Amino acid sequence: MERLCAVHPNAVWHMRLSYILATNEGRFLIGHHKHASRYEAWLRHHQTTTPQMLTPVLLSLSTEPQTLSTVAKKYLVDMPVVLIVGATRGLGASLVKSYANQPTNQILATARASSPPKDADNIAYIPNIDISSPEASKTLLDYLNAHSIRHIDIVIVTAGYFATESLKEPSFEAQEKMYKTCVIGPTILVTALANHSPGLLNSSSKVILVSSESGSITLRHESEGGGNYGHHASKTALNMSVKLLSLDLKDRGVAVVAVHPGFMRTEMTKNVGFDKFWDDGGAVTPDVAAKSLAEWIGTFDISKTGQYWAPRGAADIGTAEPILGPKEKLPVPLQLPW
Ligand SMILES: NC(=O)c1ccc[n+]([C@@H]2O[C@H](COP(=O)([O-])OP(=O)(O)OC[C@H]3O[C@@H](n4cnc5c(N)ncnc54)[C@H](OP(=O)(O)O)[C@@H]3O)[C@@H](O)[C@H]2O)c1
C-alpha cells in the first residue's frame, strides 16, 4: 500500500536507503512501515506548530521537483483536518479522542483557557477561544493563518453552557451568557470561517453545530413543563442559524447540520442537578456519544444539509414518545422535528 510518511530529522540517516528505493520507484513509501503512524503524527504536529520544518524534511525525501507537489497533494487529500470548538471537557474532549484515534486525522482543538492541554501526536490545541466573545473568530483565524491551515474538512462546535431557570427564577444575565455561547458565538464563528477564503470551507467540508433536542419546539410537552428559557430557546435559535447558514453555503457545497448528541453524563448536566436523571433517562458517557456522533458525521453529506439529527435516536429524549410515538418504532439515527 502506498503511504505518505515523514521521519524525524534524526531518523533520516538511518532510513535513507528506504527513501531512495521509494523515490526510484516513483512512489512515496518512505521510512519503515512499522513506524508509519508515528511519522505521520510527527509530520502533522510539525506542520501545525512549525510549518517551516515540513519543507526540509520533505525535500530530503524528494529527488525531483515534481515530487514535492505530488506529495503535498496526496498529503492534503489523505489527512483530514477536524476543528473541534469547546474541546477541553465532555463531548468535545471525547470527540478529540475519537478523531485522534485515526492517525491520519489532524485535530485542531480549541480551549477557552490560555494554557490548554498539551498537544499530542495529531492534536494541536488552540488557546484563548472563548466563543461567547467577539474576539474568538479573529483569534482562531490568526491561528489558522499562522499555521498555514488552508482547508478544514470537519468543523464541530460543541462549546455550550446550561443554567437552569424557572418562572419564579429567570435570569437575564444567564440568558445573555447562554445566547452568546450557544448561538451568537457559533454563528459568527462559522461565518468567519466561510468568509476567510473560498477554500477553507468547500464542497468537502462539513459543519456540525451541536444543538440539543431541547431546542425543538415540537418536542416540548406538558409532561416536561416549561422553564429553562435561555437554554432551550438559545438552542432553537441555533437551529435557525443552522438552517440559514445551510442556505448561504449550499452553492459552495458546504454541508451544515444541527445535532442532538444524546443525554450525557457530563459536568453540564451534573452542574444543573440532572445527574439524578442519568440512570432513568438513559444518559451515556461522552465517549459513547462522541463515537455515535463521529460515525454519523461519516455518513452526513450535502443531501442532509440544513437538517436536525439525533445520531443516537430517541432513546434519551424524554418527550419523544408522547409526540413522535413508540420509541421502538422510531429509526436510529432519527431526524428531529424543528
Ligand atoms: N450533556 C448533555 O446531556 C447534552 C444534551 C444535549 C446537548 N448537549 C450539548 O452538547 C454540547 C457539549 O455538552 P457537554 O455536556 O459536553 O458540556 P460540558 O461537559 O459542560 O463541556 C462544555 C465544553 O464547552 C466549553 N465551553 C463552555 N463555554 C465556552 C465558551 N464560552 N467558549 C469556549 N468554550 C466553552 C467548555 O470549556 P471549559 O473547559 O473552558 O469550560 C467545555 O470544553 C453542548 O453544546 C451542549 O449544549 C449536551
TrEMBL record:
InterPro entries assigned: NAD(P)-bd_dom_sf, SDR_enzymes, SDR_fam
Gene3D superfamilies: NAD(P)-binding Rossmann-like Domain
Pfam families membership: adh_short
GO molecular function ontology, one term from the record: oxidoreductase activity, acting on the CH-OH group of donors, NAD or NADP as acceptor
PANTHER family (alphabetical): OXIDOREDUCTASE, SHORT CHAIN DEHYDROGENASE_REDUCTASE FAMILY SUPERFAMILY (AFU_ORTHOLOGUE AFUA_3G13450), SHORT-CHAIN DEHYDROGENASE/REDUCTASE SDR
Protein's recorded name: NAD(P)-binding protein
